[in-house]
Amino acid sequence: MESTSKPTVLHIGDAIKYNHDFYNTEFLPLFNVIQLTETDRVGFIEALKSKKYGSFSAIFRPHFQTGGFMGQWNTELISLLPSSVRIFASAGAGFNWADVDTLGERKIWYTNGAGASDEAVSDTALYMILSVFRNFTQSQLAARTADPEKFMETHKLIATISHNPRGHVLGVVGFGNISKKLAFKARMALGMKIHYFDIVRADAKEEEELVATYHDSLDGLLKVADCISLHTPLNKHTHDMIDSRALSLMKPGSRIVNTARGPVVNEEALIRALETEHLSAAALDVHYHEPQVSRRLASMENVTLTTHIGGGALDTRINFELNAMRNIIAVVGPDGGFAGEPLTPVNRKAFETAG
Question: Which positions fall inside the D-isomer specific 2-hydroxyacid dehydrogenase NAD-binding domain (predicted)?
Answer without folding.
Answer: 127-310
